[in-house]
């Protein structure tokens, strides 16, 4: 087992954000994982116009956040991102479901990407480790008292939340959501909106744990469709199941539609060593896997 590689913009982060500390104290619990720090930048960024010099410096920091992500994630291989709550323990059925999902997707050749935290995220990364697949965590800068889970090969932090969101979509070929809170909902609806508006094509969006998601699906597919605020086709783009087999088959049967990039070439003039061949056997796995959608499997890279 190799040591986890860490890519951090801030070697000395601050403590948990005061808003989170206050909310946690009110509920009698410790601050929740991954809710950010009290760094001044986070409080100033959305406070309207700032002096031009500070805005220019911020633009530079945003650019460097993007560059750091592009350079770090360029060779990680095709990813599937798995979301869910940080609060589920090892003995919870959702933890077991996430671990098995991570393992099965890892065996299919995918890199598993999460927010790098405990709970569902840890379970998915642990499943990737079970399958000897690559395991990655991406999040905003953590408070100094919080650490990523121990099942990561690579841990990447970003200053800006929106940069992280771009990286998750850019390098992922599917999203899988297990039960979670606002952060999980945010990623679900971000993805659904990008699919609805044609920004990403044929992107598999899978919800695991139908008992948890049923009220949300009822609202989307009955209330919202009934009021014509969304179309029935918008609901059809969300695949909800309790079956790991069906979820994996759906992903493998869908990703071939939008140009799966197996392994970009390294450029010597950028100091990039030619990486080893990514898990190209995914193509054979996908082609041999029956799908529940009737869609073709992934074609091997040419």
Summarize it.
The protein is 43% helix and 12% strand. The protein is an alpha/beta fold. It has an eight-stranded parallel beta sheet with strand order 1-5-4-3-2-6-7-8, with helices on both faces.
Could you characterize the architecture of this molecule?
The chain is an alpha/beta fold. The protein has a single domain, classed as Rossmann fold, CATH 3.40.50. Helix 5 links the parallel strand 3 and strand 4. The longest helix has 22 residues. The C terminus is likely disordered.
Average of pLDDT: 82
- What's the number of structural domains? 1
Largest sheet: 8 strands, parallel
Name the strands of the widest sheet in spatial order: 1-5-4-3-2-6-7-8
User: Can you identify the CATH class?
Assistant: Alpha Beta
Helix-strand category = alpha/beta
Cα separation of the termini: 32 Å
List the uncertain runs. 274-302
Oligomerization: single chain
Helix content: 40-55%
Could you spell the SSE succession in H and E letters? EHHHEHEHEEHEHEHHEHH
Number of helices: 11
What sort of overall outline do the alpha carbons produce when their principal axes are compared? globular
Q: Please identify, by name, the CATH architecture.
A: 3-Layer(aba) Sandwich
Q: What fraction strand?
A: 5-15%
CATH topology-level fold name: Rossmann fold
Per DSSP E runs of 2 or more residues, the count of β-strands stands at 8
User: Radius of gyration from the CA trace?
Assistant: 20 Å
Primary descriptors:
302 residues; alpha/beta; Rossmann fold; 11 helices; 43% helix; globular; disordered C terminus
């Amino acid at each position: 087992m190799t040591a986890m590689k860490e890519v951090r913009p801030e070697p000395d982060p601050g403590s948990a954000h005061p808003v989170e500390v206050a909310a946690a104290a009110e509920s009698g619990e410790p601050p929740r994982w991954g809710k950010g720090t009290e760094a001044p930048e986070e409080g100033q960024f959305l406070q309207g116009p700032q002096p031009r010099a500070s805005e220019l410096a911020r633009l530079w920091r945003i650019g460097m956040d993007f560059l750091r992500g592009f350079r770090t994630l360029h060779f990680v291989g095709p990813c599937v991102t798995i979301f869910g709550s940080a609060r589920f323990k090892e003995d919870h059925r959702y933890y077991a479901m996430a671990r098995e999902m991570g393992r099965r997707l890892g065996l299919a050749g995918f890199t598993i990407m999460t927010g790098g935290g405990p709970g569902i995220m840890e379970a998915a990364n642990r499943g990737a480790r079970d399958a000897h697949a690559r395991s990655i965590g991406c999040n905003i800068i953590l408070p100094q008292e919080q650490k990523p889970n121990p099942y990561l090969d690579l841990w990447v932090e970003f200053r800006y939340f929106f940069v992280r969101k771009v990286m998750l979509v850019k390098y992922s070929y599917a999203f899988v959501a297990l039960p979670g809170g606002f952060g999980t909902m945010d990623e679900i609806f971000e993805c659904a909106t990008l699919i609805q508006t044609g920004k990403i094509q044929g992107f598999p969006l899978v919800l695991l744990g139908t008992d948890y998601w049923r009220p949300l699906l009822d609202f989307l597919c009955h209330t919202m469709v009934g009021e014509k605020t969304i179309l029935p086709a918008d609901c059809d783009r969300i695949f909800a199941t309790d079956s790991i087999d069906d979820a994996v088959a759906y992903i493998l049967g869908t990703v071939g539609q939008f140009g799966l990039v197996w392994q970009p070439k390294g450029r010597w003039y950028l100091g990039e060593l030619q990486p080893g061949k990514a898990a190209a056997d995914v193509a054979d796995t996908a082609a041999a896997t029956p799908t529940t959608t009737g869609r073709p499997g992934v074609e091997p890279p040419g």
